[in-house]
């Protein structure tokens, strides 16, 4: 089980010494309580700012990512499994406080029949990431919950988990986020971590028992076709929807008004692609993206890594890969499902889950471990080969305890490939995508640091943590906010100029950066 210790504010005096001359810090990394205090205060305030509930539905329903005609209401959709009249009564105070016609409550149509995009009803309050992300997200919410628990916000942390249990029952799975255009996909699975994070503080066995059917349902989602690849017994990302993602067409536009898909077509027209058979994704004669491109694009968004070149340009080759990240998370889901069954007193069921975890560990090490490289790499099950694309997800198997001590040592030896002055690089490649170099993302810092610490590499973990904490603190002092992503080479948060694909804004808030800041602080001795 992952370590979920509580955070105790303390005085941290640290110098972020680098892994070599090329990684030397640029100064300003002494993390005194005087510097940390204002950041901690900002984070505590922000949990309230980012909170969404029935009382403030007028803030929750609007979506910065879609266009809305003047006078058109924001729609809140309610699952057909739910009591619409009961929900209407529950929301009546909030609905009565809005402008006439601003909000409209409707039953959710069948998938594919939604004409106007809208918010999906959830019964409990939740915390959003911030900025353009004004809804409850899949993997963001795990990291946000970690931060809430570290800050003593147990009730809200439990609400986050309860909303995911509700999504599984009423919408079929944990969604990318609770908007209608996300109904066709999930995001990286962290459910059991969230359940146990709450249980460790409440010891509420009845709550855990009631959650168990959702755990089984969500596990089947990831381990049945089309997510399961029978060739390997491992899983992949796969969005069941077709065609362009609605939110991309509406929102991911550059200064010239070109969408992400317009820029992709321009790239294909002018560049030779050797990472995959580009003809499968782009019809050059028609200058059109193919249905398989959109399937890959949607599935890439289920992974959360949108976009990078990890699975070839724009990640659209992802549908042919067993990723390190996903299968590591399914391994920890299996081990934690066994732990839950032990808590509930069913040793026989626990042994079944332990067997599943052993089988996955063997498969991950057979297909995803590259002995020559000393890295965990994503596996192309079509070609039967690993893709040599050095990526921060190589630390996931350390984080979940899947790697052997020898494998962890090899990964640690390669830390210098990804370590930068301001933290951990997402990859070794600079491609113009936000999930590649020179950018660093808070959850990957947290996973790498905790993974290294788990295998006894405390000095490396501390150094990496201090680098990222120093970057976030420095930028907070300069701008007064915490943001979504950072250039960890320059140690700056003004990243827009370096991002060509996806969205180039740097959102303020920001949920998982706040949480990682607390977790990295807590891990320092």
Strand order of the largest sheet: 3-2-4
- Proportion of β residues? 5-15%
The computed structural class is: mainly alpha
**Strand tally:** 18
Distance between the termini: 21 Å
> Quick check: average pLDDT?
93
Shape from CA axes?
Answer: globular
Folded structure, characterized:
Helices cover 44% and strands 8% of the residues. The chain is mainly alpha-helical and 525 residues long. A three-stranded parallel sheet has the order 3-2-4, covered by helices on one side. The chain has a three-stranded antiparallel sheet with strand order 10-13-14. β13 (379-380) and β14 (385-386) form a beta hairpin. α4 (138-150) packs across α18 (511-523), α7 runs antiparallel to α11 (324-343) and α11 (324-343) runs antiparallel to α12. The chain is globular, with a radius of gyration of 22 Å. Residues 3-27 have low confidence and may be disordered.
Topology (elements, then pairings):
Blueprint: H1 33-49, E1 51-52, H2 57-60, E2 74-78, H3 84-97, E3 103-107, E4 119-120, E5 126-127, H4 138-150, H5 154-171, H6 191-202, H7 205-223, E6 228-229, E7 234-235, H8 246-251, H9 260-270, E8 282-283, E9 288-289, H10 291-303, E10 321-322, H11 324-343, H12 347-367, E11 369-370, E12 375-376, E13 379-380, E14 385-386, H13 396-399, H14 405-413, H15 415-418, E15 419-420, E16 423-424, E17 439-441, H16 442-454, H17 458-479, E18 485-487, H18 511-523
Q: Features of this protein?
A:
525 residues, mainly alpha, three-stranded parallel β-sheet, three-stranded antiparallel β-sheet, 18 helices, globular
């Amino acid at each position: 089980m992952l370590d979920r210790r509580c955070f105790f504010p303390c005085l941290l005096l640290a110098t972020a010494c680098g892994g070599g001359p090329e990684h030397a810090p640029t100064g300003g990394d002494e993390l005194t309580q005087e510097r940390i205090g204002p950041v901690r205060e900002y984070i505590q305030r922000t949990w309230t700012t980012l909170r969404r509930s029935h009382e403030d539905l007028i803030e929750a329903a609007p979506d910065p990512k879609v266009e809305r005609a003047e006078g058109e209401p924001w729609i809140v959709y309610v699952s057909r499994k739910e009591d619409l009249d009961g929900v209407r009564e529950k929301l009546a105070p909030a609905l009565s406080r809005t402008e006439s016609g601003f909000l409209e409550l409707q039953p959710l149509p069948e998938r594919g029949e939604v004409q106007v995009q809208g918010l999906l009803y959830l019964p409990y309050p939740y915390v959003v990431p911030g900025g353009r992300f004004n809804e409850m997200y899949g993997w963001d919410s795990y990291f946000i919950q970690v931060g809430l628990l570290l800050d003593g916000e147990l009730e809200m942390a439990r609400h986050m988990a309860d909303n995911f249990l509700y999504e599984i029952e009423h919408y079929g799975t944990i969604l990318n986020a609770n908007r209608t255009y996300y109904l066709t996909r999930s995001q990286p699975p962290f459910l059991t971590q969230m359940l146990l994070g709450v249980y460790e503080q409440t010891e509420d066995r009845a709550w855990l028992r009631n959650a168990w059917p959702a755990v089984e349902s969500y596990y089947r989602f990831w381990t049945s076709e089309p997510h399961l690849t029978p060739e390997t017994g491992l899983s992949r990302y796969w969005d069941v929807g077709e065609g362009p993602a609605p939110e991309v067409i509406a929102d991911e536009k550059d200064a010239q008004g070109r969408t992400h898909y317009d820029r992709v077509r321009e790239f294909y027209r002018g560049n030779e692609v050797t990472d995959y058979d580009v003809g499968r994704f782009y019809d050059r004669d028609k200058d059109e993206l193919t249905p398989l491109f959109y399937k890959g694009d949607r599935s890439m968004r289920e992974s959360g890594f949108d976009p990078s070149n990890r699975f070839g340009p724009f990640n659209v080759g992802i549908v042919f890969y067993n990723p390190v990240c996903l299968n590591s998370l399914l391994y920890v889901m299996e081990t934690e499902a066994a732990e839950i069954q032990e808590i509930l007193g069913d040793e026989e069921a626990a042994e079944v889950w332990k067997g599943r975890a052993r089988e996955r560990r063997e498969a991950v090490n057979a297909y995803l471990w590259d002995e020559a490289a000393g890295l965990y790499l994503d596996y192309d099950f079509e070609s039967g080969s690993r893709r040599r694309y050095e990526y921060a997800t190589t630390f996931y198997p350390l984080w979940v305890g899947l790697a052997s001590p020898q494998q962890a040592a090899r990964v640690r030896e390669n830390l210098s490939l990804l370590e930068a002055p301001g933290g951990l690089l997402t990859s070794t490649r600079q491609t113009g995508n936000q999930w590649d170099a020179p950018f660093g993302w808070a959850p990957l810092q947290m996973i790498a640091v905790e993974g290294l610490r788990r295998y006894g590499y405390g000095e490396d973990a501390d150094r990496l943590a201090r680098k990222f904490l120093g970057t976030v603190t420095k930028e907070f002092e300069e701008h007064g906010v915490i943001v979504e992503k950072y250039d960890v080479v320059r140690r700056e948060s003004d990243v827009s100029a370096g991002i060509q694909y996806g969205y180039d804004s740097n959102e303020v808030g920001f949920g998982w950066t706040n949480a990682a800041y607390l977790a990295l602080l807590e891990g320092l001795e």
